[in-house]
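Running log. JK asked me to keep both predictions on one page so they can be read side by side. First protein, sequence followed by its tokens:
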Amino acid sequence: MKRCLITLLTAFVLFLVWSAVVLAVEPSMKKVVAGKENIVDGPIARRQLQSQAQSLLYQEKFDELEKMAQELRKTKAMFPEGVWKLHFFYMGLSPKVTSPEGWKSHLNLVDKWLQKSPSSITARIAAAVSWEFYGADARGKGYANEVSDEGWRKLGESFQNAHQWVEIKPS
């Protein structure tokens, strides 16, 4: 069961990373509105959405994040190329850190959001994704046979933390 869970969560993280890389290489599409260039598609528009979500998170504007996510879920908003905007919203909430202090700060920030809104599905997904990314960073790079026992232990613990946030039913 544990091994299956770790495999599934690893696949999810790899999918997120893969989709970000694949979509980043597509050419952007632009739309001219009232004489102004408005980017509606492509890597620039996706990065703008990610940056907006990340900025709101680091400014601790949790209510605005909730509204944004609810709107994206409600409208099932997609970029014109057919990619879900909600995916890139959550990518914006994923940590952009690699130092132990950065991880601590990011995980504390997400925890603060969870304490403020314990039944928020948006905060729960942000926490799960954050723990998955932390585990992947703690595991280290390289082939499986090159990963230390400590790296595997941290990966498993972080995936268990991630799983707890998506498993618990909101009240």
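And the second, directly underneath as requested:
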Amino acid sequence: MKKYLVLYIQIVCYTGLAALFAFGSSTDFLLAFVGYFCFRAIGNDLIYHRLVCHRTYTAPTWVWVVGNIIATLGGQGSAIIWCSIHLQHHANSDQAKDPHSPWTRSIWRVMFYPVNPYLDLKYSAPYMKNKMLIWFHRYYWHIHLIYAILLFVVYPFGIISLYLAPMAINY
């Protein structure tokens, strides 16, 4: 069931990206670029990768909260899931248990396979002690729904330019 849910979400995101190219204005493209930058550079790289996963810097609570909201909206899962996959990758780089190595499985499966069957949950243990990360994990889809509703109220095409298209690129 989860495999098909994630596949459905990917299809919706790529449809949103196609709609951006078909119906979007130059402003919408700029918004999509800004959205992608926030999701990717701030959310994934600074928050999930450097702050949560590797703890390369310390940050005040508000940075954790705002950063996790931005990273959550990037559509690559909660910090617990993302960091678990990343730690498993570091532990098994380019070996059979590496969750996203193009050397041990096809590049297409790494890029587009919606559910990672190779995830070992023992890598999530360090993150299961953080109550904030558990909260973001538990309310992952609620955050997405609230963001989509706010975008629809403020700027309806923003669901495409500030949500679906950047998330499709971020996949």
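Observation for JK regarding the second prediction: The chain has a mean pLDDT of 85.
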